[in-house]
Design goal:
Helix content is about 30%, strand content about 5%. The protein is of the alpha/beta class and about 120 residues long. The chain has a 3-stranded parallel sheet, with helices on one face.
């Protein structure tokens, strides 16, 4: 188990589980640790793709949770995991808790597209 697996919440439960070599596990909104460790600042990459609404709810419940826009709203991700339009007002209400994210320089599109993509969805 990696370093993240040893991080424990206020109740002593692990906040993140890493898989063994060759396995991939990613956090889900219902076991993120945000409630178990109230002082933990959690940044959810890719806006929680594809569980956008679940992670949006997590950010609404816990003030220390941030969402980053890595790949979100780009033509690339909208083609196979589009952000639903219904929760856009909820996302806008988070204001400065939505952070610019980028996988630069490892992008399947021009960097400028990542910068303009969040503006396109308004």
């Amino acid at each position: 188990m990696g370093v993240a697996g040893r991080c424990r919440g206020s109740r002593g439960d692990p906040l993140w589980y890493r898989g063994r070599r060759g396995q991939t596990h990613r956090p889900r909104a219902d076991r993120s640790g945000a409630g178990a460790a109230p002082r933990l600042r959690l940044v959810v990459a890719h806006m929680g793709m594809p569980e956008y609404e679940e992670f949006l709810g997590l950010a609404e419940r816990y003030g220390q949770v941030r969402l980053d826009t890595t790949m979100a709203f780009t033509d690339f991700s909208e083609g196979f995991m589009p952000f639903p339009r219904r929760p856009l007002p909820r996302l806008a209400a988070l204001g400065d808790r939505v952070l610019l994210g980028s996988d630069f320089p490892n992008l399947p599109y021009p960097y400028a597209h990542q910068l303009h993509a969040p503006l396109i969805c308004k």
